[in-house]
Amino acid sequence: MSEKDEDNQKNDAKGETKDLSSKTEDSSKESASVEEQTNVATEPIEGEAAVKTEASPAAIAKSSEVEEDEDDDDAEISNSSCDAIEDQIMTLIAAGHMFKAHTIAKKAFQKHPESVILAQAYALILLKTGAVEESRKIIYPILDVVPQLDETTNAMMITISDLLNSKFLTEGRPDIIANVGHIFKESWKYSHHCRDLEISRELYLASFRREKKTRAGMHAAWLSWLTGNDEQAKSLSAEVLKLLPPFGLEASFDELIDLAEAQLSLGREDDACKLYEEAMKQSENESYISIVAARQQLYFLREAGFKIPNQAFEILTPPTVVVFTGHQIDHPSFQTSLFPQEIEEDVKRIIIEKLKSINAKIGYSSASCGADIIFIEALQSLGGEINIILPFDISDFVETNVRHAGPRWEKRFERVLETAHSVSFACEDKFLGHDMLYRFSNHIMHGSAVMRGKFLTTEPHLMAVWHSRTDAIPGGPADFIDRWTDISALHLIDLDELSDNGGNTDKIDLSLAQPQKFSLTFDPFISKSPDRVIKSMMFSDLSGYSKLQDEHIPSFLDFLEKLNGAIEKIGVSLESLNTWGDAVFAVADNAVKIADFGLRYCDVIETLGKKYPEFPNPIRARISLHSGPVFVAQDPFIKKMNFYGGHINRAARLEPVTAVGQVYATQQFVALLYGETSDERNEFIQKGLKYYERYSTEYVGVISLAKSFGQQEVYHLRWK
Questions:
Q1: What angle do CA 375, 393, 331 make, to 5 degrees?
Q2: Last residue of a domain, which of 465, 488, 522?
Q3: Structural domain of residue 573, as residue ranges?
Q4: Which residues, 6+ apart, have CB-to-CB distance to 256 below 8 Å?
Q5: Which of 238, 278, 531, 682 could serve as a FRET partner for 699 with CA atoms 20 to 30 Å apart?
Q6: For the chain, how many structural domains are there in total?
Q7: pTM exceeds 0.70 for this model
Q8: 433-491 pLDDT, tens per residue?
Q9: C-alpha 692, offset from chain centre
Q10: Do residues 535 and 682 share a domain?
């Protein structure tokens, strides 16, 4: 975000909220219609599900968090200036919290549609969530220019001459001009239209000419280089260098970063790296967001073809994201000891030392009594952000993972839920005695950390408090360790080394380290149910099918025959593929297979549907993807294996509200997908092979599922 002159901001704030109502009315309606089509709700809180329990007052308080947050947002928007709301939105975007940013930006813009400040902030978050055209429709009224159909791009765009004649460049606030420039720069990443880069360059240049801010100057310089004007790029970089004392004496962190980029632009790599080092000396007083933004800029330039020294990336160290797993604390009923109470302080001390050594600031963990809660408290004591992911229904979780250790641990559990940055679920189902839910939760934690790490330009680490004399059980620490592919990012704390075991090396039977007396809240008969397994699944139907008349059926049967032939050639190994009418249901043992199948299936239909002009409407697909625990058993009617459970229904209920021609995926599916592709990438790296990312995900919003099946955080999945 561009720098702001606070004094000018206070003086100009009222004057800059010129009336955009008439200009944005149409675009607001169109944007709203898009949201109505996808049923985007306004309640998401960082993608967190509501926490529900009858056992814990803290958890009860969390359960109303979603409902109360909407009122809190409304009150905050009502009581804050447009500048303050914009700052909040930009901070959330910079930290990667798109859910919360989308909620606040949408509400604020609806409340103040006349505000240029909020319009550009909302346009940016729409862009970040993949709504490129909707973002442009909000920006064009700000520029006071009318887009025209560009024959080369087949998109509605403005011309450079129209932009240069716009009063916005001479009368708009310089920092807002720069922010709009940022939007067009980001738009280019989606559209790949060079015109977006040229518009962005002119906006940054206008901002820099009117208010000599180093950030705007460097953006103008890099955009000049990207659009082929090397001389202008060097001239602007040299101009930026003259704005500050040599080598950044008494310069701020942001100014030092700008100076370093100016030196890079002029080919002075050593001087640039010295400035980056000087900036990092001041980083203790800076949010990690500033460091991440500087790294993201370097990655952007490297991908665009500019030579960036590896040393620069090594200097600009981002915060480390840590996934955690660990054993529960011993209970007096345990028949053997894994984690005795007396070594709790030693474990906490070692965790803190390891967190400090890897600059850990963000954590993902469950919240069982023992190692989980100790880790959460340790990270919070260092000022870190903790994201708690529970594996199943919270009342079952408290009963099986907390309560048996006594009221002290139950109180600590309540406290960490109250103070966590987010609390969510891998699934909200009952436990039913299936340990596989712990493994699924570990997968979700891993994938969530990978997603966050991608935004922060870093890879997650795994920290585990385990016992070396135990075997792996589904979802346990040893199981998580065995499945972790990046050994260089693995940090182990062996409980056996901290305990006085007398040199015993015998394996420990984990069944002896379980509470001997506890009861679950379900009928024991249910525990004899069919196998419960983690699967990824796809539902699809064909838009346009319901409009077909009898005279179209022969052509439609031909369409289905060609579609079936194309499906056979997709070449993805599925566990199940069922079709009826125009619907398809597919199941696989991992998310990558379903992602590949779903995207290829969508591509086939997009191509094939255009070959039947006799249809009233082109045949296109709606495709939904989801992952979760399901029951597998033989269907008593068809005598084949089939899949059952609430997560099948969840996947099915997402498909009707999916946008036509697109592939929508739930948050659980996307987390699983990122975890699996992270493992793939690590395996390629270990073999000395280059790995190419195949998928791109963009946040759609919180969608109300069909048939009142609740709400779901949803992403748009596409090929990268």
A1: 50
A2: 522
A3: 530-719
A4: 248, 275, 276, 278, 279, 282
A5: 682
A6: 4
A7: yes
A8: 888 899 999 999 999 999 999 888 889 999 999 888 777 778 889 999 998 988 899 99
A9: 20
A10: yes
